[in-house]
Write a structure and sequence with these properties.
Helix content is about 15%, strand content about 45%. The protein has 1 helix and 6 strands; from the N terminus they run αββββββ.
């Protein structure tokens, strides 16, 4: 195998093992169940997340920022959910 083929193989393998990039989105909270962690957002997204990853207090009108790792088919995992009270600046990236 020549040097160029070896370099291409190494780059290909490095790209395949790279972790998925984290992403986020924000929306307003329109309804929730504090017991179960179920949230309905103004963009019609319904999230049921573990209450342990929720930072902040659920209240209608709050900004919900969801930090997640996605795939082309949707969420791979949700890392955390940050809830910012109404009237506050949204959470920073």
């Amino acid at each position: 195998m020549n040097l160029r083929a070896c370099a291409c193989a190494v780059l290909l393998l490095a790209g395949l093992s790279a972790p998925a990039a984290a992403d986020q989105f924000s929306a307003k909270l329109t309804a929730f169940n504090p017991t179960t962690g179920l949230m309905i957002l103004n963009d019609r997204t319904t999230l049921g997340v573990d209450k342990k990853i929720i930072e902040g207090t659920m209240e209608v009108g709050a900004t919900v920022t969801v930090h997640f790792v996605g795939t082309e088919n949707g969420f791979e995992r949700i890392d955390k959910v940050v809830i910012t009270p109404p009237g506050s600046a949204p959470a920073a990236k």
